Amino acid sequence: MKRLTSVLILACLLPLTLSANEAGLTGETAELWDQALTAESELRTRDALQILLQVEKIAPDNSKVLQKIARQYSDSTVDTANEEAQRRLLDKALEYSQRATDIDPEDPVNLLSLAITQGKMATLEGNKAKVEAARVIKANAREAIALDPGYAWAHHVLGRWHREVDELGSIARFFTKILYGGLPEASIEDAVYHLEKAAELDPENLNHHLELGFAYAAAGEKERARRKLEKGLQMPSREKHDEAAKIRAKRMLDKIS
Q: How far apart are CA 212 and CA 224, in angstroms?
């Protein structure tokens, strides 16, 4: 289930960069929020988390704050190779993602991020959990798009889901169906469509271009894949997982060159 594990990881909780005003924060909480955003942009995840936990004490029912805390816990898994430590961090990420979703269940970011957190947790579990999480990821990504058709990351997640599941292969899909009830249908055409949409909606994020490059490669369009991979690799790394994404892209570029 190596490929299925890959679709569940999806790097991290999805980027959510809102101003203090957009997050509904004023005064002291707004100042702390801005400090947290600075720490996050500098990849000081632990510092960002500690500041946001202070904000939570003042605004415990603010879903944007809870979602941002969830992301810091999720991103913190990059800083440790210990599986038990990763599990504890993901437990906290899931707790905060669930709280954010309970408060605002129609926020597409909450909906999608909750599914991604569950997916990351499933990578530490057995194949049955992986299959169940993969189903949830597709369903939540589609619902997030229904709520906000302009949500680039929902298109990204759904596009990558289609590519990864399409590449499982007939034998793996057969045994997945026999043992765990199977997965929803996937196609490389849908992968390309949604990843093109993500890159169109959010052209400044390198991940959309890199994943679109992978989709083009899977579709046999090597020249388009090469151009997209090179474009993403030339863009500056801003997020915690960008360098890891670039490593994957360089390997693919070598493979198709």
A: 9
pLDDT tens sequence across 73-112: 998 998 999 999 999 999 999 999 999 999 999 999 999 9
Q: How many CB atoms lie within 10 A of CB 81?
A: 8
Say which DSSP state 236 is in: P
Provide the residue type at 232 as one letter.
G
For the whole model, what pTM was predicted? 0.86
Residue 119 to residue 96: CA distance in whole angstroms: 15
pLDDT at residue 162 greater than cutoff 50: yes
The residue to which tokens 């597409």 are assigned: 108
- Which comes out higher in pLDDT, residue 7 or 198? 198
The one-letter amino acid at 48:
A
Three-state SS across 109-146?
HHHHHHHHHHHHHHCCCCHHHHHHHHHHHHHHHHHHHH
The first and second tokens of residue 24, run together, are 């509904």
Angstrom distances, CA of residue 192 to CA of 37, 115, 161: 32, 22, 11
What are the structural domains, with CATH classification, of the chain? 2-202 (1.25.40.10)
- 115: CB partners within 8 A, 6+ apart: 133, 136, 137, 139, 140, 141
Two tokens at 22? Answer: 């957009």
Rg (CA), the chain: 18
